């Protein structure tokens, strides 16, 4: 069957799954006084439409920052403004100042879900389709299968269309950035990434690989000639895009500072709620928050983060190639997620996107990772009453990946890209041949624990003494697995490119 | 079959219908089943379905006892809905099994090495992901998957020459839902001709002395036993007339509130157009026209204004006349199971075209068996595509709420894109599937949908001619379905009879 028919079918399947999930509940449904992220997005439409730009990020009688104050960069605010204009035409009650607080109705839910779908359709989905079409050395059937698996990734669907957020916009822009930079349209790629950054500040997790890759390209082209020109072009693009986005906020120093304060709330602490990273898991044994003072916590998390991502970034700068770039995106984002300050559990999506991109290269590990990433958000999804869509989408995703890539046959050392690593280890330990088997057993154990924990969380009540037992268990178990993946991906980068010049595949 | 429960989007009356039947069969004795009328949704399916609901009700009581109370009208707690949704999914297992059996009957002569281009794979996708079935069963709520599973299984058994099993399955099916009476003539004639008469003369006509009494008696016994099991208890209670009056309510009108896209829809549309023209040209007296037909709604059609009114007897005659050629074909020119399948589809389509108070869901009776033919020949594939696209589009008015709009459009696009592209690829070596007229017709569905759902609600005609979108949908689909019916008849009548060497 022709590729375009297949691709259309795949996109339609993706859209159908998205809309069906969106018929379910959203975050904070029917839970006054604070509600949830859905109410936050509605509130931002109200604020941006009714108040002048200068007051968007400031506390005032009309704009109570404690009730879902704006804490994303200006592009989110402009997007909310655009949605508010449409809302005004349909029903002004949805965004009336003060009186629309906690507004909930079927029609409004339809409108909000439609905004997510349209944003997704315009930005994220075309990026995925184009990315899969540009993959090299694959039959068109495999490209379409790849697109299907990426579009079916449950984490993004459940958060965007269930819990309610606009991650597909920032991730879509980041993907356009990856696409541009990998295909040597560096200026356009960096423009797209700046847009992503200006939409959600969490995209900073991806910024280092972009920076190192582009810097590496400049070095390769020679700093005295073309490389320098490229560097200047890129710098100008970045500065210009930031200026355009932040223009209304550059008029006064106080405006800029306030926006920055809202974006990076360093007062909020090392972590909030239960999240599958080092600090939360450590706090099970050691109450770090109470032992160390605030600025020490900041410094420690900084050090951990940067130490863990430095090797990959240095390698990327010295040997820039799209494959190393993709893997560095994974490791950097994962390092930030595991060790950084004030991480939300939803930030795992920033790691999942690059892993989706390497799905075709290491299908087994990527599928495993994507399942773990969805599982790590389980407490959040259960809070929003999204158990059924979670189960269905996870099963659909797993079946799609298992059949498209026949993942269970691809667990040899070569397939896992661990060949060079194993050879190096075998120089000291000749009997080191059991790596694939260990990994298969770990996968089995991991799936069993995930299923068991899910069943336990859903059916049992936690003991009185530890009401958060199950969420903490989920986070702790996910943290251990994510740590394993961090080590794995770092090994792949560091060892795989040792023989970089000998490899035939240079894409 | 994936499925996500939708708490608010559609509580069609079918939920309440089946909940009521669970309640009736569980809490009342058999003698009351067909007399109970607390709710307006009285039991109007044959006894086996009532027993089926009885069996389900024993599982239902572990979910929520309250739904089994006859007086709890419109009771729809979340556990009730969960139970009902799961019961549909669970009974669909039979449908999946039947699809599996049907795929075994397809020969893979054209099979390429690619899995997705094999006829078996295409057939299983076309059946399992049939848009109409998904919409009607899982969003709207009915048990059609299970029933169609039985029908497809009986067809598969006939293909596999296990005639007695096929007959048994069909007899059970008839007593589960009597709408399958539409296709009973095909079964009857085929079994008589090809099973009871064991041999043919060289030219294909019947050899009278090869009649096997044993086979005839065994078939008769099966049908009799099944019917006795089903109707026996009610015969003993002297309730048969009541049962039949519930099963065949002829007091309803020619078309129900939304006209199924059949011949009578075109007839009524023509009548409405003529009466409007007649009024404008002052040929008709406004006082003589019944008020109901001139007001805004599409109503149950009882009388026509310009053209002669239609009675149930007239529809029955038309149906019989329409079925007759295909039945004669089956008798005089038997082509084995494939011929039987064609006749079955023609019976179903003819009854759809000319029947009394036909529901648009009945188009699935023709669409699903047609899928089996579509992967065999290019001509059948093109007929199938027109029938199925027009038929599925005519189901759109069943889902009219805003959250369902993207779903029905996306699912329809998905199914249509897949079916057209996969069948085109399967038959790419033969001439193109559609001529320009058919392509134009199919493409016209897009603008029609845009007009009916997006443009019309914002125009000023909405108040005066609020029935217009339904009328247009019904008439447009009726044209497509009538065209497919006609083409299928042509291909059935002009096909050469099967010789002895033809393997079927």
Describe the structure.
The complex is a heterodimer of chains A (507) and B (504). Chain A is mainly α. Chain A has one domain. Chain A is 68% helix and 0% strand. Chain A contains 22 helices and no strands. In chain A, helix 4 runs parallel beside helix 7 and helix 14 runs antiparallel to helix 15. Chain A starts with a helix and ends in an 11-residue tail after the last helix. The relative contact order of chain A is 0.10. The C terminus of chain A is likely disordered. By secondary structure, chain B is an all-alpha fold. Chain B folds into 2 domains: 203 residues, no CATH class; 244 residues, no CATH class. In chain B, helix 4 packs antiparallel against helix 5, helix 7 packs antiparallel against helix 8 and helix 8 runs parallel beside helix 10. Classes of the chains: A mainly alpha (507), B mainly alpha (504). Chains A and B meet through helix 1, helix 4 and helix 19 of A and helix 18 of B. Chain B: It is a multi-pass membrane protein. Chain B: Its main location: endoplasmic reticulum. Chain B: It comes from Phyllostomus discolor. Chain B: One of its GO terms (molecular function) is dolichyl pyrophosphate Glc1Man9GlcNAc2 alpha-1,3-glucosyltransferase activity. Chain B: InterPro entries: Glyco_trans_ALG6/ALG8.
Unreliable stretches of chain A, pLDDT < 50, 5 or more residues?
499-507
Oligomeric state of this protein = heterodimer
Strand content of chain A: under 5%
> Which structural class best describes the helix and strand composition of chain B?
mainly alpha
- Uncertain segments of chain B: 1-10, 292-297, 499-504
List the secondary-structure elements of chain A in sequence, H or E. HHHHHHHHHHHHHHHHHHHHHH
Terminal residue distance of chain A: 27 Å
Shape of chain B: globular
For this entry, give a set of tags:
heterodimer, A: 507 residues, mainly alpha, 68% helix, B: 504 residues, 2 domains, 22 helices, transmembrane (chain A), signal (chain A), dolichyl pyrophosphate Man9GlcNAc2 alpha-1,3-glucosyltransferase activity (chain A)
